[in-house]
Design a protein that fits this description.
- This protein has 543 residues and is α+β, with helices and mostly antiparallel strands.
- 37% of the residues lie in helices and 17% in strands.
- It contains 17 helices and 17 strands.
- The strands form six sheets. Strands 3-10-9-4-5-7 form a six-stranded mixed β-sheet, with helices on both faces. It has a three-stranded antiparallel β-sheet with strand order 13-17-16.
- Helix 7 links the parallel strand 4 and strand 5.
- The longest helix has 27 residues.
- GO terms for molecular function: 3-oxoacyl-[acyl-carrier-protein] reductase (NADPH) activity; 3-oxoacyl-[acyl-carrier-protein] synthase activity; fatty-acyl-CoA synthase activity; holo-[acyl-carrier-protein] synthase activity; magnesium ion binding.
- Belongs to the thiolase-like superfamily. Fungal fatty acid synthetase subunit alpha family.
- It holds the Pfam family Ketoacyl-synt_C.
- It comes from Thanatephorus cucumeris (strain AG1-IB / isolate 7/3/14) (Lettuce bottom rot fungus).
Length: 543
């Protein structure tokens, strides 16, 4: 999504703002010996109205998954947004206090466990185990079903939906609870609290009413969400430099806040000749006149106010919180895609500037009149590059959802059973995300050094570890031995590719002893995985 705003300076608008005494008076300012770049003085005792400005500001918003897959340059994480129209009144320019609602809650006596990252991590891991168990139960029911191929795909789709719901509940904390303020909830998603907000960017128009109302609102917000007293937040008053556009105001502020959070530098208000003494009572805020070089900013909060008591707020986080959630291989792949995209973008931009083709006017949609109804009625309709280099819809549109077939053949054959003299069959299906391959203790207990070296060298170590874990579980089931409990190590079962790259099983210790007792000399393995799950079939065979 592309979001932003723009406006142009107009004589009519400027005249009416002056009539409301909202703008600084040029004659008065010059009489006091001030230069034009000193006319806008937010939060000062001498502020006398805003300075007109014009321009545009635009942001490109997309999901984290899309941004990672495309290799886009990620400037920040938009963790929370809110708009409010808190009241109606006869005064159009009077400032409102509706943004206070971001801190609305009935504070409980005891901290809520759902706000604790460790608690949610345990719950999510448990839920993923439940989903994996549910898949196994469903696949067992499909053993004699003639339509098993299609139904296996349906099971995987449902498992993906269940995991998405679990992530929404324990990851993104979706929903509402009167005991949790919306802003507190947004911070808790990332394991943060009110004390982790390192900077705020105020609307700061340099008018008498707004610059007193807005700090008051922030002070009440931080009081409500229990920021630690004595830990004031530095304030950015960007309009001391940019003046006050109308359409682009919030877009400019968001861009400035992103720069501050990314660089760790909080720009000072260069025109702050004397901070208004009335702001002293808001001790959660500090108004610097010089830039502050911090050791890093985790989160920034901004507010924007408009006529008619309309307000908005946004919380952004440093991109490292997203990058930290990626696996090492995912992050390396993103860096490579980002580098490739940056080079392509530079080339495209250079060509547009040299050929004066920055703006390309389109005179038709990406579909023909004959295709219009089909495109609008088909949720699977997607554009692709045509021969002319433009995106358009093909004449033949997809009519059925694409199904990941990686696991189907393996599972269907295993469910139907095998022919011949075999000692046992074991099938296991796991969510990749349910296998804690990020945990070094888990990896060391359950995988040999050779397995660890092999998996870590793969394009997706997470999927490789999960495949071998599911394989070990399937071997365990095929051997039909008594379980030693969930904490038993699986390193006695080793799965590595042979000289032809085909996965093979080597048994050691107790696993080999159990196989020898049952007369199993060799274990055949069939392995596959999709983005959702890992599926294995292991068959113990006698000599």
């Amino acid at each position: 999504m592309i979001a932003g705003g723009f406006d142009d300076f107009s004589e009519e608008g400027s005249f009416e703002f002056a009539n409301m005494k909202a703008t600084s008076n040029t004659e008065t300012e010059f009489a006091m010996g001030r230069e034009p770049n000193e006319f806008s003085r937010p939060t000062t005792s001498t502020r006398a109205g805003f300075m007109e400005a014009q321009g545009t500001g635009v942001q490109v918003l997309m999901s984290a998954k899309t941004a990672i897959e495309m290799g886009c340059a990620i400037q920040s994480i938009v963790a929370f947004t809110s708009t409010s129209t808190d009241k109606a009144g006869r005064s159009i320019p009077a400032p409102g206090r509706g943004v206070l609602s971001v801190a609305r809650e009935i504070t409980p006596k005891q901290p809520l466990r759902i706000l604790d990252v460790d608690y949610r991590t345990r719950q999510l891991a448990f839920r993923r185990k439940q989903i994996s168990q549910w898949m196994e139960n469903e696949l067992e029911d499909l053993r004699d079903d003639p339509d098993a191929t299609e139904l296996v795909a349906e099971v995987e789709r449902e498992a993906a939906r269940q995991e998405k719901d679990a992530l929404a509940t324990y990851g993104m904390l979706e929903g509402s609870d009167p005991r949790i303020a919306p802003l507190r909830r947004a911070l808790a998603v990332w394991g943060l609290t009110a004390d982790d907000i390192g900077v705020i960017s105020i609307h700061g128009t340099s008018t008498k009413a707004n610059d007193l109302n807005e700090p008051h609102v922030y002070h009440d917000i931080f009081t409500a969400i229990q920021r630690t007293p004595g830990n004031p937040v530095p304030v950015i008053a960007q309009k001391n430099l940019t003046g006050h556009p109308k359409g682009a105001a919030a877009a400019w502020m968001l861009l400035g806040l992103c720069q501050s959070v990314n660089s760790g530098i909080i720009p000072g208000n260069r025109n702050a000749d004397n901070i208004d003494p009335a702001l002293r009572e808001f001790d959660y805020l500090v108004f610097p006149s010089r830039s502050i070089h911090t050791d890093g900013i985790k989160a920034g909060l901004m507010t924007s106010f408009g006529f008619g008591q309309v307000g908005g707020s946004a919380l952004i986080l440093h991109p490292r919180y997203l990058f930290g959630a990626l696996g090492a291989s995912e992050y390396r792949n993103y860096i490579e895609r980002n580098r490739t995209r940056a080079m392509a973008s530079y080339k495209a931009m250079s060509e547009m500037m040299t050929t004066n083709s920055l703006v390309k006017i389109k005179d038709h949609p990406p579909f023909t009149p004959e295709l219009e109804a089909d495109v609008l009625l088909n949720p699977l309709a997607r554009t692709s590059l045509d021969k002319s280099g433009e995106f358009s819809f093909p004449k033949k549109l997809d009519r059925s959802p694409k199904v990941a077939k990686e696991n189907q053949d393996v599972l269907v054959n295993a469910l139907k059973g095998v022919q011949g003299d075999f000692k046992g069959v074991g099938v296991d299906q796991e969510l990749i995300s349910a296998v804690p391959s990020h945990n070094p203790t888990f990896v060391k207990r359950n995988f040999t050094e050779s397995e660890i070296t092999y998996c870590q060298a793969q394009p997706s170590p997470e999927a490789s570890f999960a495949a071998r874990w599911a394989g070990k579980e399937a071997v365990f089931k095929a051997l039909g031995v008594k379980s030693k409990g969930a904490g038993a190590a699986m390193s006695d079962i080793e799965i590595l590719p042979d000289e032809n790259g085909v996965p093979s099983v080597k048994l050691h210790g107790d696993a080999k002893k159990a196989a020898d007792e049952k007369g199993v000399a060799k274990v055949l393995v069939s392995l596959s995985h999709s983005e959702v799950s890992i599926s294995l079939k292991y068959i113990g065979r006698p000599c």
